[in-house]
Design a protein that fits this description.
This protein is of the alpha+beta class. It folds into three domains: 5-91, Uridine Diphospho-n-acetylenolpyruvylglucosamine Reductase, domain 2 (2-Layer Sandwich); 98-215, 2-Layer Sandwich (Uridine Diphospho-n-acetylenolpyruvylglucosamine Reductase, domain 3); 219-419, FAD-linked oxidases, C-terminal domain (Vanillyl-alcohol Oxidase, Chain A, domain 3). 33% of the residues lie in helices and 20% in strands. It contains 17 helices and 20 strands. The strands form five sheets. It has a seven-stranded antiparallel sheet, sandwiched between helices. It has a five-stranded antiparallel sheet with strand order 6-7-11-9-10.
């Protein structure tokens, strides 16, 4: 049921008219996030500029029972920041202040709308950086990184966002303002910060975060290795990890992704290869030199077509430019694609890649594989043309089969993109009914009314499961529509 006009009037009174959007043309830009297969039109979009304005909006939503969805740059690939009809979107992009940067304590206190790379740029003069580096880091916000516990290419060595958030200030869905953690890892009591990171917006809205900064590595050694098959590249990853080496990053790109990167950014990758492996060593010069000798021996034994070390910083950046642009570059090969986000044990990477290839050929759907090989986080890009009847349906079927394979192998349905709207139907494949009920009880402790980002993550009554047969249940209810 839509909120009454007086309810909306109360929200309108909290912001100037130009920052409370209700016209259809204004709302259109917020109808979907990076998962463009689904969209919904919000009742309104609020554009606060201060933390106090966000707090006031959340408290008004709680008082009136109005659902709300927090949104940064909208780069979520699971529908995690898709709005709810009858609810509002609260955008956080204007909360973009770096409140404090202390190079001696190696911390940065930032608001939720600060762009990921802006933190590293601010810390660079002091020889520091912010380690999490998702592919969308030039546009995604810290608030979104916190909501989905983002990772990136270097999460193998440095961990996910949760490993770099020391403290949080947040407004819970009931309007309560809380502060978790602090400027030190030495805390007493429950790890509330760790619980909040990765909640997908179901607890409330992060307003401000205290981030740990790390010293910039003294030295990098980046290697590009080409292979005839993607299975060979996957087996090479297993050999590197089994040797005890801990590179800063290990990434794999498969044939279609290589083709797209070459077309989009003229990536100079070895010809005649169905897969390329990017390995980056980093640290003190002496350590990198010793690790390089071990890595060279492992790569030589993995039967590569070519091994190409970066000779300078420019070549290193060129290698990474191709990888970082892979998702958008695939748009040159297909008008539409789904980015999947499953995880498998590293020792089964080769097998997983082989099975994805078999399923892709069986269903006659092209699939470009790009992923964080170091932690087994797969990102199959499933290509389809949404103008063709049934094409999205078939692409979703393949995506579902890949997720089920990940669970069967002892992995996960998500590594960093979250469950959102896309993967709710598969939560029960990974967790028991009792475990899901426990999650719901934790959510209810933070959000008794269930108004914070409703319809995300959980299957069942609150969030009807995705289906590959006919209309999505939310479409039948008129809550969402497909493009």
């Amino acid at each position: 049921m839509l909120p009454s006009a007086p309810s909306l009037d109360r929200l309108k009174s909290l912001l100037p008219p130009e920052r409370f959007l209700t016209q259809s043309a204004e709302l259109a830009a917020y109808e979907s996030d990076g998962l463009t297969a689904f969209k919904a039109t919000p009742l309104a979009v609020a554009v606060p500029e201060t933390q106090d304005e966000v707090i006031a909006l959340v408290r008004a939503c709680h008082a009136e029972g109005i659902p709300f969805v927090a949104r940064g740059s909208g780069t979520s690939l699971s529908g995690g920041s898709m709005p709810v009809e009858g609810g509002i979107v609260i955008t956080l992009n204007r909360l973009n202040r770096i409140v404090r940067l202390d190079h001696e304590e190696r911390i940065a206190v930032v608001e939720a709308g600060v762009i990921n790379t802006a933190v590293t740029l601010a810390a660079a003069p002091y020889g520091l950086l912010f380690a999490p580096d998702p592919s969308s880091q030039s546009i995604c916000t810290i608030g979104g990184n916190i909501a989905f516990n983002s990772g990136g290419a270097h999460c193998l060595k440095y961990g996910m966002t949760s490993n770099h958030v020391l403290g949080l200030k947040a407004v819970l869905a009931n309007g309560e303002v809380v502060e978790f953690g602090g400027a030190s890892r030495e805390m007493i009591g429950p790890d509330w910060t760790g619980l909040f990171v990765g909640n997908e917006g179901l607890f409330g809205i992060a307003l401000e975060a205290t981030l740990q900064l790390l010293p910039k590595p003294e030295c990098y050694h980046t290697v590009l290795a080409g292979y005839h098959t993607i299975e060979q590249a996957g087996d090479a990853v297993s050999a590197i990890i089994a040797s005890g080496l801990l590179p800063g990053a290990i990434e794999i790109m498969e044939g279609l992704a290589i083709e797209a990167a070459k077309a989009a950014v003229h990536a100079d990758y070895p010809p005649g290869c169905d897969a390329v492996l990017i390995i980056e060593l980093e640290g003190p010069r002496e350590v990198v030199a010793a690790d390089r000798a071990r890595l060279d021996a492992i790569l030589a034994a993995s039967h590569p077509v070519e091994v190409r070390p970066a000779r300078d910083a420019n070549e290193r950046l060129a290698i990474w430019k191709g990888r970082k642009s892979a998702f958008s570059a695939v748009g040159r090969l297909s008008p539409d694609f789904i980015v999947q986000d499953g995880v498998v044990p590293r020792r089964r990477l080769g097998e997983a890649l082989r099975r994805i290839g078999e399923m892709s050929r069986e269903m006659n759907i092209r699939c470009a594989n790009v992923f964080h090989a170091g932690d087994g986080n797969l990102h199959p890009l499933i290509l389809y043309d949404g103008r063709e009847p049934g094409a999205l349906h078939r692409a979703e079927q393949l995506a579902g089969r890949i997720l089920k394979m990940c669970v069967e192998m002892g992995g996960s349905i998500t590594g960093e993109h979250g469950v959102g709207v896309e993967k709710r139907d598969y939560l029960a494949d990974m967790f028991s009914a009792e475990e899901i009920e426990c999650m719901k009880r934790i959510r209810a402790a933070f959000d008794p009314l269930g108004i914070a980002n409703p319809g995300k993550m959980f299957p069942g009554k609150e969030a009807p499961a995705l289906t590959h047969h006919g209309l999505h249940p939310l479409e039948k209810a008129g809550v969402i529509s497909r493009e």
